[in-house]
Amino acid sequence: MSIDPVTDDDLMLLALEEARAAGAHGDVPVGAIIAVPTDGRYAVIGRGHNRREQRGDPTAHAEIEALRAAAAHLGHWRVEATLVVTQEPCPMCAGALVNARVRRLVYGCDNPKAGAVASLFTICTDPRLNHRLEVVAGVRAGECAAEPPPRVLIRAPGARCVSPGRFPGRASVVSGEVTERPKVHDWKSCVSKGTEGSNPSLSATVTTATIELHPIYGPG
Predict the structure, then answer these.
(1) Mean pLDDT across the stretch 50-78?
(2) What CA–CA distance (Å, rounded) separates 91 from 77?
(3) At what angle do helices 62-74 and 91-99 cross, to 10 degrees?
(4) Which candidate in 18, 53, 63, 147 is catalytic?
(5) How far apart are CA 135 and CA 208, in angstroms?
(6) pLDDT at 206 over 70
(7) 76 Cβ partners below 8 Å, 6+ apart?
(8) 63: annotated active-site residue
(9) What is the pLDDT of residue 26?
């Protein structure tokens, strides 16, 4: 998609593109964009999406990836810009936004289990900290919450979840078919049905059939 971003909505569309890229390689579909205003529109200086599963890196969240890209572009650590992300940031990412001196945060859907901007904590606006951000919530929230999850949904009998970086190119074929659209924040029902996905925010219902799994799974 070619977008010349002018508004927060436009930037969120770019962030959604990044989210889809994360889901394509088996990560939680969250994407982030960092931009600065120039001549009545935005110039993108950093972008990123979740790569935690892909890289086996617990810090490789979308916001962190975008901050690293923006800092490299600017040549210093102060990223005084607008960060747009599809989901409310977690404590790690919210803290990174404060430390990077990000001026504005725009996010899509709430993160009720890990959100550190409004849901569980208010790190970005806490008056006790040495920097606070302007926060805009709910931009394209429905689209962000509905973003399809990673393609890895079914756990094969006798298989275990592995990092694609450690076991590149492996895939499994199992009996099973996803007959119900995966739900966000419902991993307990997923595990209880024996259909554990690649991350604990997915669930699925399975019936008899044959499907091919994404290479994130290898034989155990």
Answers:
(1) 97
(2) 19
(3) 20
(4) 63
(5) 46
(6) no
(7) none
(8) yes
(9) 87
